[in-house]
């Protein structure tokens, strides 16, 4: 559960920076809307990490499942990127 509190502290600090620097337009050299998007995405990443860490007791199973999902996403991304070439090759 320490990971959860660390993630919440980082998100809280980022939110405080956005609130304090609202008129400045930039946080750490990034525009406020881009920094807010990164903060929002980091929220979902932290939820995913905390969920995985809390669900799996043995790291071997977690790494195996993560590798499976990464491979599946990679295959689907490649198929989507070459969808027009594959359609021409198949004759659709």
From TrEMBL:
This is Uncharacterized protein. The keyword Transmembrane applies. The chain crosses the membrane at residues 34-54, 66-82. It comes from Nitratireductor thuwali. It comes from the Bacteria. Keywords: Membrane, Transmembrane, Transmembrane helix.
């Amino acid at each position: 559960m320490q990971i959860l509190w660390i993630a919440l502290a980082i998100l809280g600090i980022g939110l405080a920076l956005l609130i304090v620097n609202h008129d400045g337009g930039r946080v750490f050299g990034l525009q406020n809307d881009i920094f807010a998007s990164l903060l929002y995405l980091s929220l979902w990443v932290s939820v995913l990490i905390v969920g995985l860490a809390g669900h799996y007791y043995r790291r071997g199973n977690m790494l195996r499942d993560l590798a499976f999902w990464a491979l599946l996403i990679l295959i689907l991304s490649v198929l989507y990127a070459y969808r027009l070439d594959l359609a021409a090759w198949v004759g659709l």
